[in-house]
Amino acid sequence: MNISIIGSGYVGLVTGVCLAEIGHKVICADNDQEKIKKLKSGKVPIYEPGLETLLARNMKRRKILFTTSIKEATQKSTVIFIAVGTPSKPNGEADLTYVENVAREIALNIDSYKLIIEKSTVPAETGKRIERTIRLNLPRKYQRKNKVIELDVASNPEFLREGSAIEDFMHPDRVVMGVESKRAEKLLREIYKPLHTHLVVTDINSAEIIKHASNSFLATKISFINSIAQICDRVGADVLKVAEGMGLDKRIGRSFLNVGIGYGGSCFPKDVDAFIRLSEKNGYHFSLLKEVRNVNEEQKASFIRMIEDKLWIIKNKMIGILGLAFKPNTDDMRNAPAIDIIHTLRHEGAVIKAYDPQAMVNAEKILKGVTFCKDPYTLAKGCDCLLVLTEWEEFKKINFQKLRHLMRQTIIFDGRNLFHGDHLEQLGFEYYGIGRGMSKNNR
Prior knowledge:
By secondary structure, the protein is α/β, with parallel strands linked by helices. Helices cover about 45% and strands about 15% of the residues. It has helices at about 10-20, 35-40, 50-60, 70-75, 95-110, 125-135, 140-145, 165-170, 180-190, 205-235, 240-245, 270-280, 285-310, 335-345, 360-365, 375-380, 400-405, 420-425; strands at about 1-5, 25-30, 65, 80, 115-120, 150-155, 175-180, 200, 320, 350-355, 370, 385-390, 410-415, 430. It starts with a strand and ends in an 11-residue tail after the last strand.
């Protein structure tokens, strides 16, 4: 099938490459000329494991092409995915300006039946607004009574996790299809037929809500277990054992019960805010989600208070940061907890050094006055403590014997509970995790 993806950011690019991999002919469009130039040369502008290899294979097969022309993307495809950004407004509401602009551009260039699919994360009723925008902006020849252009709008939310997006696309738990016609449903079923997965077919509004509800529920699980961690620290319990005991219950499950310094990234913070705002506009005050958001912010503040308590004086202390990205296997710094933590510590006079396997190029654009290091050992030299802020697998291979001799004070604050405190304490470190109240250093 001939498919276009308008918007070649994280979601659009991964979707386009994976659709090409399962056999479709794909055109990816974006108004960022530099990005398209890189993609045409086979260079991926984001870090996502396996994506560059998949892109090269499908470019060689001529299954995927790139353009800056929405006209080309519209007229050469039957199916058009809209995958542009929907950033948050100051009030938390999703800014749908880019979605509207793309809908208008599609309308001006439409020449035959099209299925327009919203892939961006959008609030309920956006599908209806997209269709209305397209019909209002059709060329006049199609607005006359004797000239009718056929089109459908559908919703097909994405559930891709950064760092494992290709696996998520190729082996999904489900594919959600919000449709209003049999023709749209048939096309969507054909698109995803090679994946052999469970298809959830519903109306457009329900599909849009499924996306917001899913991400908000996962954010709720994270904030819940972080609240439990606060109690564990106060009563001398171990949150890792608590999470294990909870997670073995099939009704609960172990996933997203990982304690840390809070969620970040481009999805959870934005989607929680947007769902709260959508609820308020429709007369419901989603107080539960407001508290989820509050708990997430408090988790960073609590971590900083622990550092202040154990380190005593922050001013002029050299603090090393292990991990900057909001999660491992990505270079994404959007809403990364490391940003707020570093800004707070620098405001208190700390000297900050940092290392991340992938995110330092992006971090340098955001974090000023930070010394970026080439490896954990360069980072550790002269440090009064180390903060683990991203749970990179690489960090598990660190030689802590070597690290100990490089540091000025051997203190580790583990914001992701990546390490076993007992082992590090035996090596001569002071170790502080989150919710690890059973550790002698945490009591």
